[in-house]
Amino acid sequence: MARQDPAVLALLPLFKFHDSSAEGLARLVEGVTALGSDGLPALRRAARGSKQRARRRVDVLLALGDAEPGGAADAEVRELLSVHDDVRDWLVQGMKTRARFIPELRAIARDGDDPQWAWAVDGLGELGDRDGVEILMAHTAGRDTPFVLLDALRKLKDPIAALVFEPNLTHPETRTRVYALWGLAALGHEAPIAGLVALLDDPEVRTATSYAPGESRRAAQALCDLFGWPFEWKPEAVEATRTRVRARFTPAYLAACAEALARGHFDLPRDDPRRSPGHR
């Protein structure tokens, strides 16, 4: 009969505590820490043979690294990156909210064939990695640019991203046009605001076999982000945003922005009489 591993036996019940709850994670972290130098090896042994436990191991390693960046737990995280399995997907999702892993996320983002490429791109955007813009721009392809890249670039607000936002203003997919307008407005251009305001009225489309919700709520999200207005992903957010738009901008100003955008200009001429009084 095989000898039972007491350290593993101590940890196994903690894997089941409230499944993936924050409280359950805290207890598992405490259990690993209590084992001292055998904590991480025991965690590795306990995670074998179960995808769920392997994911919980990742959660524990990331949590331990939060408390001790650059320590043994972070070293194991980096080791796990070399193993291309289902757990790596979970790992990169956890890394993308932690700035200490920006170098690793950049390395993944350089390789468009990496299975976790999209998560890494999203992470660089979420973490505001302006130094990673060159890596992201290398993967752009005009209107064929992957959507996740547009989203990341609009978060980074680097002027070079205008080169990819502009061709996507005429993209056939409305969602992509929203992000192109959002990205240009985030760079400080005023004409795209009119495009976003117009999309507050983007209709939902229902047929006997399909439903497309329209992009009015996403346009509201963009405007709220740009002007620091409160936003929740709820239907009423659209009308609330319309009300704030009416309070901030005159119809003449928005019309001037729309005209400029239609001509391919991102800003109004400085001498446009509608510019100063229109932008309240």
Structural description of this entry:
The chain has 280 residues and is mainly alpha-helical. Among the domains are: 91-145, no CATH class; 169-279, no CATH class. Helices cover 60% and strands 1% of the residues. It is built from 17 helices and 2 strands. The chain has helices at 6-15, 22-34, 39-47, 51-67, 72-80, 86-95, 102-110, 117-126, 133-137, 147-156, 162-165, 174-186, 191-198, 216-227, 236-248, 251-262, 275-278, and strands at residues 205-206, 211-212. The protein has a two-stranded antiparallel sheet. Helix 2 packs across helix 4 and helix 10 (147-156) packs parallel to helix 12 (174-186). It is elongated, with a radius of gyration of 24 Å. The termini are far apart. The model has no long low-confidence stretch (mean pLDDT 91).
User: What's the pLDDT, averaged over the residues?
Assistant: 91
Distance between the termini: 80 Å
Compressed to H and E, one letter per element, the order equals HHHHHHHHHHHHHEEHHHH
* Uncertain stretches: none
DSSP strand tally: 2
Structural class category: mainly alpha
Beta-strand fraction estimate: under 5%
Biggest beta-sheet profile: 2 strands, antiparallel
Strands side by side in the biggest sheet: 1-2
Portion of residues within helices:
55-70%
Anisotropy-based shape: elongated
Rg from Cα: 24 Å
Output the number of helix runs: 17
